């Protein structure tokens, strides 16, 4: 990458997803200044060739682009709009890209606040989980002005393989909500199939192999079957976060008058998993909920 193509990027939020994303931007030749509430992820970014900052103000001071990757609406609102936040310190003309998963209404509010400060804003949530972030194969769905998307697209290409401008401000978050709806229902269906097959005495690995080659095959089956086979629920995407996302889905659907029968049930089953202590596990641990309902021990 030539020097004139390299950008200074403030990356705020170095969690499970943010850390590998920031490292991939470093590898793509950009200057990445990381900030995180806890220090160890910042130190890991420095080891990967990035820089660290001790405050939001320091991180964004010289940034061409600010990327936020935070857990939920509250954190995004605080980091961007709060006292000492991004908009209080960033330079006019900077491109602010929120890659968190938040409600469409939050995305629109941030875009409006950014416009008032002369800051360009995109909402660009991602799908693909930790593995997709590490391997830079995320799907990125961006809402905002077309010119701002064009400016951001080279950065997105360093993070993902499916990069699409899906509409105006808030559209990225709307598409992400739909993604989380589809994923939740698919994981639940896979979990039910696994328990059904095991109780029937089928060869489970063989059954999942053949199912994966037919119409029942899906990205969810491919990526989550080993977790279910091995009962290894190390979080790539925590139930706590998917529970939050299903709240976004149901709230947005109520606002626009859409009825989601399966989505509503999936949201309740996600809430049940969380209530039963599985919130910190990967969302493939919905399997444990099916086992509980079917009278099987989960440990």
Give structural attributes:
alpha/beta; 13% strand; 14 helices; 9 strands; six-stranded parallel beta sheet; 299 residues
Rounded average pLDDT: 96
Number of E-state strands: 9
Based on Cα principal axes, name the global outline: globular
Instruction: Tell me roughly what share of residues is in helical segments.
Output: 40-55%
Compute the CA-based radius of gyration.
20 Å
Give the biggest beta sheet.
Answer: 6 strands, parallel
Order of helices and strands: EHEHEHEHHEHEEHEHEHHHHHH
Strand composition percent:
5-15%
Structural class: alpha/beta
The rounded distance between the terminal residues' Cα atoms is 50 Å
Instruction: Record the strand order, biggest sheet.
Output: 3-2-1-4-5-6
Total helical segments? 14
Can you give a write-up of this model?
The protein is of the alpha/beta class. The chain has 14 helices and nine strands. The strands form two sheets. Strands 3-2-1-4-5-6 form a six-stranded parallel sheet, with helices on both faces. It has a three-stranded mixed sheet with strand order 7-8-9. Helix 1 links the parallel strand 1 and strand 2. Helix 9 crosses helix 11, helix 10 packs antiparallel against helix 11 and helix 12 packs antiparallel against helix 13. The mean pLDDT is 96.
Question: What topology emerges from the helices and strands here?
Answer:
Layout: E1 8-12, H1 18-27, E2 31-35, H2 40-47, E3 51-52, H3 56-60, E4 65-68, H4 73-81, H5 86-89, E5 95-98, H6 104-116, E6 120-123, E7 126-127, H7 129-134, E8 138-143, H8 146-157, E9 160-167, H9 171-199, H10 204-212, H11 219-230, H12 239-256, H13 261-278, H14 286-293
């Amino acid at each position: 990458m030539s020097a004139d193509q390299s950008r200074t990027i403030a990356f705020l939020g170095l969690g499970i997803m943010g850390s590998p994303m920031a490292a991939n931007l470093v590898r793509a030749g950009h200057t990445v200044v990381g900030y995180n509430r806890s220090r160890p992820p910042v130190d890991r970014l420095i080891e990967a060739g990035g820089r660290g900052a001790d405050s939001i103000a320091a991180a964004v001071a010289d940034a061409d682009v600010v990327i936020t990757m935070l857990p939920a609406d509250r954190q995004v609102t605080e980091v961007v709009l709060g006292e000492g936040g991004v908009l209080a310190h960033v330079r006019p003309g900077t491109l602010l890209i929120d890659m968190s998963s938040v409600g469409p209404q939050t995305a629109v509010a941030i875009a409006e606040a950014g416009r008032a400060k002369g800051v360009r804003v995109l909402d660009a949530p991602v799908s693909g989980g930790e593995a997709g972030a590490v391997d830079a194969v995320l799907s990125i769905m961006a809402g905002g002005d077309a010119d701002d998307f064009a400016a951001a697209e080279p950065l997105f290409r360093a993070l993902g393989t499916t990069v699409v401008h899906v509409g105006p401000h808030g559209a990225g978050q709307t598409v992400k909500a739909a993604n989380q709806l589809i994923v939740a229902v698919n994981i639940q269906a896979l979990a039910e199939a696994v328990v059904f097959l095991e109780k029937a005495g089928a060869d489970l690995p063989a059954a999942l192999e053949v199912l994966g080659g037919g119409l029942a095959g899906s990205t969810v089956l491919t990526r989550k079957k080993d977790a279910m086979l091995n009962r290894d629920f190390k979080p790539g995407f925590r139930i706590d976060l998917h529970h939050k996302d299903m709240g976004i889905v149901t709230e947005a659907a109520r606002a626009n008058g859409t009825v989601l029968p399966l989505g509503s049930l999936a949201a309740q089953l996600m809430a049940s998993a969380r209530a039963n202590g599985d919130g910190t596990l990967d969302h493939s641990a919905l399997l444990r909920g099916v086992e509980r309902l079917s009278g099987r021990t989960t440990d």
